[in-house]
Specification:
Oligomer: single chain
Low-confidence stretches: none
Mean pLDDT: 91
Radius of gyration: 17 Å
Strand content: 35-45%
Helix content: 10-25%
Shape: globular
Largest sheet: 4 strands, antiparallel
Order of helices and strands: EEEEEEEEEEEEEEEEHHHH
Number of strands: 16
Number of helices: 4
Length: 230
């Protein structure tokens, strides 16, 4: 069987990424389509409404595909390289209704902004946190509360004084940032990286048994944040 850097499912479809090719599979495992629109494409995301899926490349590009029609809808750069913008191995997410896609962007000052794209026309709707000292590694939506949670840290002049956090997105600001230890931050950063790949042993450097044990834990940023409020 083909080895994938990422292999995810929404129950109806499965998507596998090798870096150069994106495979779309049906429920029975049959190959429905192959796409070669991106290079270094290792991350895939299903829209919660089941209409589309997104693929993010390490070159700073996003591709959006229609699931039922098995075709590319749009491909565009989210990291243009202007003003030192850089694509990073960050984790984005769809909104619970599938109408927006959120992706962190690494700036030249080594901090992050958050980009929000509309799926109706694939245009940039908002660019949040420009000028702040936050580094954003992961954004995750909690469908039950329609709340977004972010994992990251506030960059300080000395790396030893970086302040790690999990926080809620409240409009255009970070709210109720709960402090994390560096050990907690490292665990969740690695866990979310593994989770984004579907816990493939190829990308996570795990045995299948280790990947299954990690997958069963189901750590969420929403639960982490709530626990930190107690």
């Amino acid at each position: 069987m083909q080895e994938f850097e990422t292999y995810i499912t929404n129950g109806e479809y499965r998507v596998g990424c090798t870096g150069q090719t994106v495979y779309l599979f049906g429920r029975d495992g049959a190959v429905l389509a192959k796409f070669r629109d991106l290079k270094y494409a290792y991350q895939a995301y299903f829209s919660p409404n089941g209409k589309v899926f997104a693929v993010k490349s390490n070159e700073g590009r996003l591709a959006i595909y229609h699931l039922a029609e098995r075709r590319l809808l749009s491909k565009f750069r989210y990291a243009t390289g202007a003003d030192g913008e850089q694509p990073q191995d960050t984790i984005g997410c769809f909104s619970p209704d599938g109408e927006r896609f959120f992706v962190p962007l690494y700036r030249a000052d080594l901090c992050s902004s958050l980009l929000v794209y509309r799926m109706s026309d694939f245009s940039l709707e908002e660019r949040l946190f420009d000028g702040g000292n936050q580094v954003l590694d992961c954004i995750e939506s909690d469908a039950a509360t329609e709340t977004y949670y972010l994992l990251g840290f506030f960059r300080n002049p000395s790396p030893e004084s970086n302040a790690y956090f999990v926080a809620r997105l409240n409009g255009d600001s970070l709210a109720d940032a709960a402090p994390l230890s560096e050990r907690e931050y490292d665990f969740y950063r690695q866990y979310k990286d593994f989770e984004a790949t579907g816990f493939t042993s190829t990308s996570a450097c795990l045995t299948p048994a280790e990947a299954e044990r990690l997958k069963a834990r189901k750590h969420t940023l929403a639960r982490l944040w709530k626990n930190k409020q107690q």
